[in-house]
Amino acid sequence: MNNKIVVLESEKESAELIKTYISEIEGLELDKIFDDYDEGLKYSTDTIPHIVILSATEDTERNNKILNRLADIKINVIVLSENYTTNLVIQALRSGAKDFISKPIIKKDFIASINKCCKEIVKTINKSNIISIFSNKGGIGKTAIATNLAVEFARQTREKVVLVDLNLPLGDVTTFINIKPSVTISSAIENATHKGAEAVVNACKQYKNTSLYVLAEPIYMEESHTMTPTHIFKLFEYLRESFSYILVDVGTNIDKMNMKILELSDLILLVSIVNLPLIRNCQRCLDLFNNLGFDDNKTKIIINRYLENDEIKIEDVEKVLNQKIYWKIPNNYFTIMSSINKAMPVCEINENSNVTISFSGLASKLTEDIIAKDFISQ
Ligand SMILES: Nc1ncnc2c1ncn2[C@@H]1O[C@H](COP(=O)(O)OP(=O)(O)OP(=O)(O)O)[C@@H](O)[C@H]1O
Ligand SMILES: [Mg+2]
Question: Which residue's C-alpha comes closest to atom 16 of ligand 1?
């Protein structure tokens, strides 16, 4: 049995997404993507790939004709469609489709569908993990968590880690960690249109002598205005080629850009503080993620500035959110402020402080869970 996949898809963004998903599946090879279906059908009947992914068009008769032809020669066909109705699914399956996925494509569904077609050769892997640190309220510790966690990831795993400041329009990672990059995100993306992945990777500045790199925020607010969700997609694609862990400091807005970042993330650390309005906000975010079709396992709640004797107990927060708290970071204003003022991670300020120990524990729990694939792309 060969391991080739041919894709018939005329929408560019969807084709790119399929390409990324396939690249994360060990044992399968993306052969070709066609936006011309006749050409794609001819190529498939000549080469007999193991799987054809057919993005259905409005022309049902033509879809069925392609499907029948491919099914006749025993090719596994996965049909994609924006139009998810029971009738359409039944029709596709009757015409010989092996499976049906609705658009927008969710990675988990995609992998499950591929698995149906070739259980024996597919082993899902993640070459790298995108971990986004998010909250829809500002000032609650996203950057403190993102920077210190990134330092710990690099220290513990010794793998290449990149901290990306996507808190647009004005991020603040470089105020937490003393680094002076010559190129910022927006120029890296601009250069990438000509020079590809190399431009993005070269823009990541190494932190001291460690395996941590930083892709810094734009210097001027207006620089970020030219960035689009497609740029984000490309940026992650390039970073995935070089880094094992990609940590993203995300902005607070619920907008297209941030939703794209979260959608493309393997894991979201949703940061909150134990206070009622923020917990309510956190609940709203969880509802939103659910409506967007994110896997329940993808979002982990991190409580920052935790106080043992807080009036509101963690159990109460868990009850309200109907989810376990993944990690609690203690309140330690003195160490955090000292680290910000000196632009150093907390481990360089005081390796025995409770926040240093907490960031270290969080990094090791996350890496263990990622290795155990407890939540990533299952
Ligand atoms: N664990 C902690 N203990 C005590 N204070 C903390 C802790 N974490 C963060 N802080 C305080 O909260 C402030 C805001 O933190 P930070 O800048 O990381 O938040 P943010 O969510 O990134 O904010 P923004 O939305 O402005 O980017 C810090 O200046 C620090 O004073
Ligand atoms: Mg910040």
Answer: 141
Q: Which ligand is the nearest neighbour of the Cα of 253?
A: 1
Residue nearest to atom 29 of ligand 1 (CA): 337
Does pLDDT of 154 surpass 80? Answer: yes
* Mutational pocket test of ligand 1: of 307, 333, 335, 355, the residue with most ligand atoms within 8 Å of the beta carbon: 333
pTM of the predicted model as reported, rounded to 2 decimal places: 0.70
pLDDT at 181 over 60: yes
**DSSP letters spanning 122-165:** -EE--SSEEEEEE-SSSSSSHHHHHHHHHHHHHHHH-S-EEEEE
Burial class (CB in 10 A: 0-12, 13-18, 19+), 259: middle
- Number of neighbours of residue 183 by Cβ within 10 angstroms: 17
Cβ contact 268:254 at 8 Å: no
Low-confidence winner among 103-107, 124-128, 161-165, 197-201 (lowest mean pLDDT): 124-128
Query: What tens digit of pLDDT does each residue of 214-235 get?
Result: 998 765 555 566 778 888 888 8
Distance of CA 176 to the CA centre of its chain: 23
The torsion angle over the Cα atoms of residues 215, 362, 333 and 275, rounded to 10 degrees, is 100
Choose the residue to mutate in 142, 273, 332, 350 for probing ligand 1, maximizing ligand atoms within 8 Å of C-beta: 142
pLDDT band at 347 (very low <50, low <70, confident <90, very high): very high
The mean pLDDT value for 312-326 works out to 95
Pocket of ligand 1 (CB under 6 A): 135, 138-144, 167, 172, 252, 304-305, 329, 331-333, 336-337, 340, 355
How is residue 279 written in tokens? Answer: 């917990």
Give per-residue pLDDT as tens, 91-101: 888 888 989 99
Tell me the CATH number for domain 129-371.
3.40.50.300
CATH 3.40.50.300 location in the chain: 129-371
CATH 3.40.50.2300 in the chain, residue ranges: 4-124
Query: Is CATH 3.30.360.10 the classification given to domain 4-124?
Result: no
Nearest ligand 1 atom to alpha carbon 167: 27
